[in-house]
Amino acid sequence: MLELYHSINSVCAQKVRIVLDEKGLACQEHLMTLAGDQFEPAYMKLNPNAVVPTLVDDGKPVVESSVILYYLDEAFPDPPLMPGDPHARAKARLFNKFVDEYLHNSCMILSFATAFRARLLRMNPEAREAELAKSPVPRRAEYKRDVTAHGLQSVYVLEALKHHEKLLDWIESTMKLGCYLAGDEYSLAEAGVIPYIARLELLRLAKLWDQRPGVAAWWERMRQRPSTVKTLFGRMTDADWAPFRTLEPDPWPAVEALLKAA
Fold first, then answer.
1. pLDDT tens digit sequence for 179-207
2. Considering the entire predicted model, what is its pTM?
3. Quick one: 97 and 14 in the same domain?
4. Any idea what the CATH number is for the domain that residue 30 is in?
5. Does one domain contain both 158 and 121?
6. How many Å apart are CA 147 and CA 106, to the nearest integer?
């Protein structure tokens, strides 16, 4: 039996839910708040990094979202979500590698500089620092610490935006070759990237692809895909929507100014 430890607004968890739905796989869900439950000893035995998602198959945990995607495609190969052509397979892996190495931290920086900043600011400094100190990855805590203090004026924000622009440019150029990111069909490249484009939309930064028609067309198709609707937007409760609906001030003018000045 498959089990999934996840949270609704985690971009990493979203990509795993997308793949589970694309493959028609059922699982027992363990929904986490990420308000401290990720640091409980029982969970950290499954995932020492204290992050979601964690997939458990027949009692054995699999961690790291991209690894989970490949695991699911190998363990449950029908329908396949990796192209048959080796070059296309390499491209699918490259998209996920870029997400892991550059985009994920960049997404975290933008999210905590905007939508998730308010919660940390409401905490007293001692409680906020105690929460940040629990992170097994000190660099991640430093990102959150700085963007909480400085918002979009954080020293980390411009580089985070540049990584997102690099991805958008890559999608734009790829759309001149076909309708999907790697090969002729939907693949793990889409599953790995979709949550990050959705996050930009939720952060009111969709204007980043106003001058990228290929991205706009690709995203419109991916946004309407049943697995995206069902496992991402369809899973969001009012509480999940709240950080994005109450996003003030609108981040776009500050983001636009940063990019123009760069």
1. 999 999 999 999 999 999 999 999 999 99
2. 0.96
3. no
4. 3.40.30.10
5. yes
6. 11
